[in-house]
Design brief:
The chain is mainly alpha-helical. Helices cover 80% and strands 0% of the residues. It has 3 helices and no strands. It is globular and about 45 Å long.
Amino acid sequence: MLLLTELGTIFLPIQMTIELGLGMLAVTKVFWQQLRWVAIALFTGFAVCSLNLAVQGADSCGCFGPVKVNPWWTFGLDLVVVAGLVAEWWWEGWQVNKTP
């Protein structure tokens, strides 16, 4: 477990930078066609991690720093985000095909 803690402190700034960068690109819709799939993969990974923590009975997912949030809540949130991204992709494709 110590190794995971050490890796977490090393990769935390990298993870935060990637999340912030992806969030900024998503808000501006820059490269949205490609970014959507990255966001789906990222939130699917978050959901898997949250589910793993929830099944193990963890008190908090640790996603929000010192604020304790039950991993079942973050798992549900991640699933809703993935479902929303997939629905948006499907809706966009449907609209394109519907246009004469």
